[in-house]
Design a protein that fits this description.
Strand content: 5-15%
Order of helices and strands: EHEHEHEHHEHEHHEHHHEHEH
Distance between the termini: 32 Å
Helix content: 40-55%
Number of strands: 9
Number of helices: 13
Largest sheet: 8 strands, parallel, barrel
């Protein structure tokens, strides 16, 4: 099996005690660092009306990252297509491809990206009558690729501009078997959101993806990836200390509270019930945290079990320096080009 490729998902996480706009600029700087470390891709997400996540407009953020990097692929994880016109999304990403030829990924998802009220503020017809997503994907793939729509299509003759020698690489994103099957149907690379599903149904999703895959002109063979929440530090003890921030966020999330990240010290000082402690202990047992070697071992086990070609790492820390250090340690563990930058 070929070596596992490594990429990054960044969500422009909000941190307590500082303005959210800082998180956007931090994402741009983190992309430059990840390029230096040798990561294959740097993806940004789309979320709405969540005080934890400042990244709400990936198409704009991608443009800034693409203009300030040279080699790393840049893309969305993902554009939430049910909110938008397929033509407009195709135009946006063809413009991005003109900014960074041969480096743009268009990851597409179906989730609302927030609560239903917010989803309807974005698109009053959400979720609409029936499932229009496959038809939207058909149109998007044609427009992104510069292929004409069928003669009986109501928008036959409409093109997504600008034209150029390169076209964005389209990915299907999902956290269930539904996304895997859609990726197989359209002959697209698939990335499973393990950080959402926590691995539930992953084996079935990847089995379906490989079994049902229909080769496409651009992707004659399936290409499988997983996006995991992971954190590395020099010692397991330090990683677990940093993880306290994530623990507190998870407890708050389960109460319906989506606030900015607090420091590990503040998180540790907050009182917890016995039930909460038991819940957190289960969370720790399943979390991908520790030294880079410990986490790397588990990522390689996932890759072998699910026939993965790539893994994307999502990391949250209160201190951006700890997050940057985590990515550097993973780069070193997986021998990425440029990983010598991980040395102190």
């Amino acid at each position: 099996m070929a070596a596992l490729a490594l990429s990054v998902l960044d969500q422009s996480i909000a941190v307590a005690g500082r303005p959210q706009d800082v998180s956007i600029r931090e994402t741009i700087e983190m992309a430059r660092r990840c390029e230096e470390l040798g990561y294959r891709r740097f993806w940004v997400s789309e979320h709405h009306n969540l005080d934890s996540i400042a990244g709400s407009a990936p198409e704009i953020l991608i443009a800034a990252i693409a203009a300030t990097t040279r080699r790393i692929r840049v893309g969305s994880a993902g554009v939430l297509l049910p909110h938008y016109s397929s033509l407009k999304v195709a135009e946006q990403f063809r413009v991005l491809e003109a900014i960074a030829p041969g480096r743009i990924d268009l990851g597409v998802g179906r989730a609302p990206g927030g609560d239903i009220k917010t989803a309807r503020a974005l698109n009053p017809d959400f979720p609409g009558a029936g499932d229009a997503f496959p038809a939207q994907m058909d149109d998007l793939l044609n427009w992104v690729s510069g292929l004409p729509l069928a003669k009986d299509h109501p928008f036959h003759g409409v093109k997504a501009l600008p034209e150029g020698p390169f076209t964005p690489e389209v990915w299907m994103l999902g956290s269930t078997t539904d996304g895997a099957r859609l990726a197989a149907r359209f002959g697209l690379p698939f990335c499973l959101a393990h950080f959402i599903s926590e691995g539930r149904g992953a084996e079935e999703a990847f089995e379906d993806y490989h079994r049902l895959y229909r080769p496409s002109a651009r992707h004659p063979r399936p290409y499988a990836s997983v996006c995991v929440w992971a954190l590395a530090a020099e010692t397991e003890e330090k990683a677990r200390h940093l993880f306290r921030t994530r623990e507190r966020w998870r407890l708050n999330r389960d109460r319906g509270v989506f606030g900015p990240l607090v420091s590990p010290e503040e998180a540790a000082a907050e009182p917890r019930t016995r039930q909460e402690e038991e819940y957190l202990e289960r969370l720790r047992q399943g979390a991908l945290i520790g030294t880079a070697a410990q986490v790397g071992r588990r990522l390689r086990e996932m890759a072998a079990a699910w026939k993965l070609d790539e893994a994307a790492i999502l990391t949250w820390t209160h201190d951006p320096a700890a997050r940057a250090r985590s990515y550097a340690l993973f780069a070193e563990e997986f021998s990425l080009a440029g990983s010598s930058a991980a040395s102190p």
